[in-house]
Amino acid sequence: MGLKSLISYGFLILPAAVTIGVLLGLQTYRESQGLSGPFTSNKVETNTYCQLAFGITPATGGQQYTLNPNQWGVTEDTTGSALCMNVTTNANGSYPTNITAPAWSITWQYPQGSDDQPVHAFPNIQIDRSDIFPIEINSVSAVNFAAEWAYGAGETLPTTTDVTALTAAGLNANVAIDMFIDSDPNAATSTVDAKYEVMIWLADFGAATQPIGLADGAVKTADINGTTFSLYYGTNSLSQKVLTWVATGTVQNIDTDFGPLLQGLTGIGGPATSDYLGYMAFGSETLYSSTNVTLYVPSLSMEVVPK
Length: 307
What we know:
Blueprint: H1 3-32, E1 44-49, E2 65-68, E3 82-90, E4 103-109, E5 124-127, E6 135-136, E7 140-153, H2 163-168, E8 172-182, H3 185-188, E9 196-205, E10 220-224, E11 227-235, E12 241-247, E13 253-257, E14 276-283, E15 286-288, E16 293-306
Parallel strand pairs: 9-12
Antiparallel strand pairs: 1-3, 2-5, 3-4, 4-16, 5-14, 6-14, 7-13, 7-16, 8-9, 8-14, 8-15, 10-11, 11-12
């Protein structure tokens, strides 16, 4: 090949090399921001899961989440009941931020259970990060939580929570954050083996939806973004110490740091700040409803930030 041919060939491959370099750089940048690469599908899919328990882990370029219908209280004797979870995902794994979760909803109906086992399910979405959990409470800088949600009667995705309609539907359920803590880092990641369960109720519906320890009264209160949360303390059927922060009123739209609610619990029988937080999820404890009801969570992000 002559000199002119080599020069011509060089100019021919130079634009291609530059283009590939730019695209690879663009893909690296987008992935670092939790966005999709430039060569992936933009398809949006909604899938339905009606299993008693099934882990759903959508592909993402950011923080991993796992969703689960988690109908742990349903037995072969439970009749006239059903729960289905709908999860809307982006095929390219791209979401607005690194910690944005997929949109999801549940539609369900259960009969009233027994007094000693009133909960049928806790359909939820869990932070799925082994690089964060377990983490000592005193090493947590913030527990950031931002969500928009609505509960409605029927199967249509609600945009607002109509308490009157939900009362007519006989809804008994809550909307809550669930966390598990233990001095043993391995036990802290287990919802069964952890010594402590700390819940934050953003709403509760129906007279049967009561935090453990309600009869003994609140042991303390705290203010988060202008909302008063009352803390109740008791022991569940697994002998776990349960500490439940219950909001005054219904908190549908929120963007805050719940980290302060993990502090100062030792003196009332709760975990020490040297104990490990091993699990965090958001969902609804479903007790019963006489007709179908739907919880819709179109916007959600959760993040445990280490110091």
